[in-house]
Amino acid sequence: MNNRKVMMKNITIRELVFADKEEFLKNMLSSQSLHHPWVEPPTTSQVFDEYWQRFQQPNQKSYLVCGELENIVGVFNVSEIVRGAFQNAFLGFYGISDYTSKGYMSAGLKLVQKKVFEELGLHRLEANIQPENTRSIQLVKNNGFRYEGFSPRYLKINGEWRGHEHWATTVEDYIAESAAFF
């Protein structure tokens, strides 16, 4: 596993390790009101263990956004990595309540894009977001993702099938914008 850190403006990203379990769960529990009804991150030991196992697969990556003190300030999951002609992955993410509106997730997303396009060698990264989740839409929009459409009843979240907007970016988009950031 390549757990090399990437840094930007006192923000780093690194892959999740099992030793992060206690801090991760504490943050997810304290941020439930921020996450609901958009995502269901692990909030119990058993669900974290399952989550951990999932992200040990070669086609799954979980990156922690860490602040100046190495504390977890956000999470980005790059999942269902497909190779071959597609070279694509899906992006999911959760912020931490104590660190919202401070630019950490935006800086973290730029670093995740750097990992995805430069290190993993992918061509495309997609984020599927419920239309009412305006903060998440603004995050991806501000980081070079473009709107590609809508699918009704796309993902089952909190027991309900919910429609999602499709947002995506490509390595070409990243190259065009990266000079301003790195």
UniProtKB/TrEMBL annotation:
PROSITE patterns: GNAT. InterPro entries: Acyl_CoA_acyltransferase, GNAT_dom, N-acetyltransferase. GO terms for cellular component: cytoplasm. It comes from the Bacteria. GO terms for molecular function: protein-N-terminal-alanine acetyltransferase activity. Keywords: Acyltransferase, Transferase. Residues 11-172 form the N-acetyltransferase domain. PANTHER family: [RIBOSOMAL PROTEIN US5]-ALANINE N-ACETYLTRANSFERASE (PTHR43792:SF8), GNAT FAMILY, PUTATIVE (AFU_ORTHOLOGUE AFUA_3G00765)-RELATED-RELATED (PTHR43792). Belongs to the acetyltransferase family. RimJ subfamily. This is GNAT family acetyltransferase. It comes from Legionella tucsonensis.
